[in-house]
Amino acid sequence: MEGMEGTTKDREPLPVRMLVQYAYCPRLFYLMHVEGRWQDNAYTEEGRQIHHRVDEEDEPLPDQEPTAGGDPEPVVARSVPLDSPALGLSGKTDVLELEGSLAIPVEYKRGAVPGNPERSWEPERVQLMAQAMLLREAGYRSERGFLWYAASRTRVEVPFTPELEARTRELLGEARALVQARTLPPPLDHSPKCVGCSLSGICLPDETDFLRRQRQEGDASEVRRMFPARDDAVPFYVQEQGSQVGKKGEALRVTKDGKEILAARLIDVSQLVVCGNISVSAAVLHLCAENGIPVVHLSIGHWFYGITQGFGLRNAYDRAAQFAAAAQPETCLRLARAFVAAKGANQRTLLRRNGNGVPEEVLRSMAGLLKQVESAGDLSALLGLEGMIARSYFGAFPAMLKPRLEGDWDFDGFMRNRRPPKDPINALLSFGYAILAKECAVALAAVGLDPHWGFYHQPRHGRPALALDLMEEFRPLVVDSAVITAVNTGMVGPKDFERTANACMLSAGGRKGFLQAFEARMDHLATHPVFDYRCSWRRIIAIQAQLLARHLRGEIPAYPGMVTR
Length: 565
What we know:
Layout: E1 14-15, H1 16-24, H2 26-34, H3 42-50, E2 75-84, E3 89-99, E4 102-109, H4 122-137, E5 144-149, E6 154-159, H5 162-179, H6 200-203, H7 205-213, E7 234-238, E8 244-247, E9 251-256, E10 259-265, E11 269-275, E12 279-280, H8 282-290, E13 295-298, E14 304-308, H9 317-326, H10 329-354, H11 360-373, H12 379-395, H13 424-446, H14 465-471, H15 475-488, E15 497-499, E16 504-506, H16 508-523, E17 525-527, E18 534-536, H17 537-552
Parallel strand pairs: 1-3, 4-5, 7-11, 8-12, 11-13
Antiparallel strand pairs: 2-3, 3-4, 5-6, 8-9, 9-10, 13-14, 15-16, 17-18
Helix pairs in contact: 1-2, 1-4, 4-5, 10-11, 10-12, 10-15, 11-12, 13-14, 13-15, 13-17, 15-16
């Protein structure tokens, strides 16, 4: 094949593990090797534990020593690195058994022996064959290898046939060609391979297939949720002014005046969120960058400043598609309609579900305005419609609140106001929207999009325009709902605010109380209206960011806004 021809001197060797991933699933290979994406799960952790012994320390490939007579003395080497510029391959064996010039690679697998005639899977046989090709380049004979299945405690022989070698070279050529491609390969079609894949939450195979073929009425195929409903790791907020964030082993440690006031294991942290005058050590920045944990910078009042993160993603295709789409007014308008329609529909649903005595004409008016959103001719007209929907919504917002001391909440003639907010409810809403903007910016950056380059919210220096786009549909579902809960349950009370003549802001205790309500909401399980499975709001935000990226790359025909039922 083309990928196997010509010089390989200027070509980076393809790791054997990546060739195995291509043989298993080309989409998995592309996500990992081209885009640089990775996510652990229980299976990858189990596999890492099984390989722990053989991966402890690399051993060089032993020299071939001639023997004076009789059989050569067997040699066993572990974790042997191999490389061949001629093949354009590199790799590492788990175990290498040597008898003179005869080399037998052995690979450890966490599962049980398959029940097929070969008693092994093709990617596993390709892995051994690729190692044999590298060993032959090093001057050894290699005619067979073994797979050790930990669950069965069984060793299965794999003969290195000409057919297996030809198949391995074919896959190597295809993998090399895919490295240069700009298009993500299609997902496997409802394959059992996807179950247990650690990248299923990034790949979204069933979801992508569902949206690509626009399922017809009566199609009973199920969209499988193949990732946890909730994330184990959560944001780690540091709000104590004048404190320092350092590291202690694999944990983050917050100190002030030499005393520890807060700590968290790195494995439990999804974001490090520093609010205001807080210093972060270089060691913490390095540790977070290495482990793909963004450091989010907020003001004391939790206005979003930016993100510090490592270069986890290795391609710019998503951003190139984003910038190209943003340059097309019709694309901007189409996406903006989706954002505004979803937001307005969710506002109306929240009022209908939670409002006490909301006039029917308010709900009818919102429904009529939502129909006009679908035919809005430009962004200016759309902005006007969004404002009218919001005016109806926030005019009825107090109907969803049940405070114990109504006079302290300034509900009479309630209107949405900001910069700065002038009453407690608006202070809560502004604070919540700032936190939500942070969440959306992190989700967008994680999928390779630029949070500052939007479609509805036009780019402007210092404004995360795309994060504001994405958060539109989640404002009522996450923030407004958290505000209602915080007020109605007493998590935040009138005494948790500091007032001046022209502004109202949350106190430190008020911010802490609302963050608890916000995080509880983000962890709450909801049913995705398109895929019909349940997961947390934080997961749904990540899914929507992923779907937006897939739409911009042309993999799915339209962006499906998140509209609650």
